[in-house]
Amino acid sequence: MAHAAVEERPGPPGRGPKTTGDKIRFALRGIGQTLITLGLVVLLFVVYEVWITNLFADRNNRHNIAALRKEVDTVNADSLPANSDSTIPLGKSLGILYIPRLGRDYAEAIVQGDTVPDDAQLQQGTAHYGSTQLPGQKGNFAVAGHRVGKGEPFLNIDKLRSGDAVIVETAKYWYVYRVMGTPAGQDPQDDKAGTVRASGNRSFSLPGRQIIEPSDGKVLTPVPNHPDIPVSGAVDKIMTMTTCHPKFTASHRMIIFSKLDPGASVKALGNTPTTKASDMPASIKALYDEVKA
Amino acid sequence: MYTWIWRHLPGPTLAKLGQTLLLVVAVCALLLFVIFPWIEPHLPISQVTVGN
Known about the structure:
The complex is a heterodimer. The mean pLDDT of chain A is about 90. Chain A has helices at about 1-10, 20-75, 120, 280-290; strands at about 95-100, 110, 125-130, 140-145, 165-170, 175-180, 195-200, 200-205, 210, 235-245, 250-260, 265. Chain A has 4 helices and 12 strands. By secondary structure, chain A is of the alpha+beta class. The N and C termini of chain A lie far apart (about 80 Å). Chain A has an 8-stranded mixed β-barrel. A two-stranded antiparallel ribbon of chain A has the order 7-8. In chain A, about 25% of the residues lie in helices and about 20% in strands. By secondary structure, chain B is mostly helical. Chain B contains 2 helices and no strands. Chain B has helices at about 1-10, 15-40. In chain B, about 10% of the residues are buried. The mean pLDDT of chain B is about 90.
C-alpha cells in the first residue's frame, strides 16, 4: 500500500511525463515568483529613493559648500556673482542656507537654477529659481529643495515656526530672514498677521506657511501671490522656499515665506589673522540660541 | 525561474550559495545605480518646484 502511494505522487518538474496538473503548477509557480520578484524590486526602489539618492546629493552639497567657502576666503568677495545682478552661471553656488531650527549641522548650498530649477540643479543642495531676485534684494528670493531623498534639504521644513531665522550666507553678507507670522513661535500655517508691503503704501497679508497646487506659480512673484505687481513695486525683501507636500508625493507644494530682518543681517567677516571671510559672525551664531527652548 | 537558475549553477551547495549571493548583489547594483536613476525622472514623485 505504502509503495503504491509513493508511485502515485507526481515527480519533480522536468522528469517523467507531464500531467495537466504539472503544467498548471509550473505556470502558477512562475506567476508567483514573478510577482514576488516585482514586489522586491519595488521595495528596493523605496530604498533607492529615500537612502541611495541621499548619498550622492549629500556629497554634492558638501562639495559645493566647501568650494564656496574656499572661494569666499581666497578671492575678492566683491567679484563674486552673488553680490551683483550679473548673470550667475547655472549650477554655481550663490550662497549657503542655514536654519537654526533644523540643527547646528544644517547647511545647504544654494545653486543657481533655471527659471524652474531642473533635477540636476536640485541635487546640488537647494536651487534658486533663476528669474527671481537674489538674497537681500527687494522682491522675492525663491529657492526649491527636495523633501524626501536627493539630500532632502527641506525634509523638516514643516517644523519652522513664525519668527524662526532662515540664514543665507553670501560672499559679503549674512542675510537673516524671519518666517512670516506673529506672534513668534506659533504655527505659521495660513497666518493672517504677517504683511508684505508694495509701492503706493499697499500692504497684503502673507502667511508663513501655505499649501498650494503645483501649478500655482504666483508664490514666486516679487510680491508673493500678487502677480500684477512688478519687481519695481516691491518694497519688502521676501524669501520663498518650496518643496513637495505631503511627503513622498507630488500632489501639492509646501511654501514657506520669510521676510528679511535688516537688524539681524550683518556684513561678512573679513580675512584677518583671526577670522576668515567664511566664518560665522557671533550675532549669527547667537540666532541658534533662540530655538534652544 | 529560481529553481532553473539553482539547477544550472555549478559546484556543491556551498558554491551555489556563494554564486547566488553574487547574483543578488549584481542585480541590486544594476537596479540601484543604472535602472532606477534612469527611470526615476519619468515618475511623478519627487517634484518640488512650482509654476512651469
